[in-house]
């Protein structure tokens, strides 16, 4: 069986480069391969048994469907490239295949197709168990200059507003205060990407914002920072030094997430956003905790109150941490190279077998495009606004609808800045929404600086459940079903 390789090009995303290396290593070891070339008139000269288009447009833009199945890696494109996909998906046939890395993408694609859909493959991605494995905590902490008795929480990611380094720093500052007299230290690993083009409300000045936040929170002496170019061995040393790995991502295309799986492979419990690929890789209550997420008119919101409750419990309960560490280690073993390679190769083989079954060549059909809501604009104007992604992101979050009741806790999503007597702004570089306010909204905000039961709020000011729900849906208030 000969597999044609198409569009295995260099990417600006480091994680995608890693995925490409896995594809190439797997396919070239298990199949005969060739590089697919496309003529000036959009045709291929020699037809292999299947064509794997890793990324890029070439396979989508062929003038005619080749006499073999087309297999496309999607890599989060259901969110970022939805317009492009809508343009080209109808060219596919049921014998073609789309490879995705999370169940959320499966759900989005299933909703896109009205009939004759191509096959969908959910491909988890591997981490290197020879590097990412448990190490003696006293040794790794000594290497990093950390004390064995310290509490250490970590963050590993691209340093972008939607990756929520600022939320991690808020968690660190709260833990530092609430877990006294023990010392709490943080490890941050990553690189700023100041020209990242997606939802770039405050991306360019994010480094300055973070520096000011560190000073404001008094964390200058509590953080170890490493750039993103660590070796796997050094990265594993850092994971092993952590008591808890925090991944509060709102990155809209978070379709897998290598770092959480690497941390689990080192036996480190997780605190993550219940979003996209993390809903698949983290088992909430077993390997860590997933903080609920939901869609609002002004971006994604998370239950950070529940997250803090979990973090405090885990970091003060030795038995719980031990059990979650063991569960994380066991679960991460599923993300080994052989298992993931088997899934990829089985998918390719099945696509070829289905194509060779001589089914009539019919094209897929798509469902109608969901309408973009005419919501009020709270976020700054940018070229591709939040509302363009909002309906697809609903599949990535954990809470389909926001239905608080009188026992629900509510609180301000983030600190607010008073811009004028009639407007406020969220102090959040990921979602810097501006809201018009009246006296009642200002009163509600004043009560919600800390979590409060809706029942108590209703008894304290002249409002109702509908008004509170509307403020949640607007993104001004967050909510939690946890108990105080």
From TrEMBL:
Tree of life domain: Bacteria
Name of the top EC class for this enzyme: transferase
GO biological process, alphabetically ordered: lipopolysaccharide biosynthetic process
GO molecular function (one): glycosyltransferase activity
Enzyme Commission numbers on file: 2.4.-.-
Pfam families membership: Glycos_transf_1
Stretch forming the signal peptide: none
Record key words, sorted: Glycosyltransferase, Transferase
Domain Glycosyl transferase family: 138-293
PANTHER family: GLYCOSYLTRANSFERASE WBBK-RELATED
Protein name from the UniProt record: Glycosyl transferases group 1
Organism of provenance: Chitinophaga sancti
Source lineage: Bacteria, Pseudomonadati, Bacteroidota, Chitinophagia, Chitinophagales
């Amino acid at each position: 069986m000969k597999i044609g390789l198409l569009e295995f090009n260099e990417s600006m995303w480091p994680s995608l480069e890693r995925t490409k290396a896995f594809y190439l290593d797997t396919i070239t070891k298990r199949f005969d391969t060739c590089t697919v070339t496309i003529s000036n008139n959009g045709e291929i000269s020699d037809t292999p048994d299947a064509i794997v288009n890793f990324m890029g447009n070439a396979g989508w833009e062929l003038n005619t469907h080749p006499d073999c199945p087309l297999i496309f890696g999607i890599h989060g494109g259901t969110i970022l490239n939805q317009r492009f996909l809508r343009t080209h998906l109808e060219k596919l046939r049921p014998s073609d295949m789309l490879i995705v890395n999370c169940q959320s993408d499966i759900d989005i694609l299933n909703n896109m197709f009205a009939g004759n859909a191509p096959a969908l493959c959910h491909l988890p991605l591997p981490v290197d168990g020879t590097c990412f494995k448990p190490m003696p905590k006293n040794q790794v902490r000594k290497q990093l200059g950390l004390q064995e008795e310290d509490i250490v929480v970590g963050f590993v990611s691209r340093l972008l507003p939607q990756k929520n380094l600022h939320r991690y720093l808020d968690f660190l500052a709260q833990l530092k205060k609430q877990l006294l007299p023990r010392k709490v230290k943080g490890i941050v690993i990553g690189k700023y990407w100041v020209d990242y083009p997606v939802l770039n409300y405050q991306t360019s000045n994010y480094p300055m914002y973070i520096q000011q936040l560190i000073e404001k929170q008094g964390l200058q002496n509590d953080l170890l920072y490493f750039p993103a170019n660590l070796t796997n061995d050094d990265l594993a040393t850092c994971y092993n030094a952590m008591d808890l790995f925090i991944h509060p991502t709102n990155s809209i295309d978070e379709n897998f997430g290598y770092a959480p799986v690497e941390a689990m492979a080192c036996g480190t419990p997780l605190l993550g956003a219940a979003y996209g690929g993390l809903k698949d890789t983290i088992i909430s209550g077993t390997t860590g905790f997933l903080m609920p997420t939901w869609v609002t008119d002004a971006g994604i919101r998370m239950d950070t109150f529940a997250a803090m409750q979990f973090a405090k419990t885990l970091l003060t309960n030795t038995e719980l941490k031990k059990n979650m560490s063991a569960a994380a280690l066991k679960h991460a073993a599923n993300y080994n190279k052989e298992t993931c390679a088997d899934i990829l190769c089985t998918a390719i083989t099945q696509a070829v077998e289905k194509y060779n079954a001589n089914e009539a060549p019919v094209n897929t059909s798509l469902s109608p495009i969901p309408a973009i809501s005419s919501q009020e604009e709270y976020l700054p104007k940018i070229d591709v606004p939040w509302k363009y992604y909002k309906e697809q992101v609903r599949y990535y979050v954990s809470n389909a609808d926001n239905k608080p009741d009188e026992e629900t806790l509510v609180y301000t999503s983030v600190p607010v800045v008073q811009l004028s007597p009639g407007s406020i702004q969220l102090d959040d570089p990921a979602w810097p929404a501006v809201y018009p306010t009246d006296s009642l909204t200002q009163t509600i905000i004043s009560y919600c600086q800390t979590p409060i039961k809706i029942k108590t709020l209703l008894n304290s000011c002249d409002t109702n459940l509908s008004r509170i729900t509307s403020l949640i849906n607007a993104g001004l208030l967050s909510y939690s079903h946890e108990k105080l």
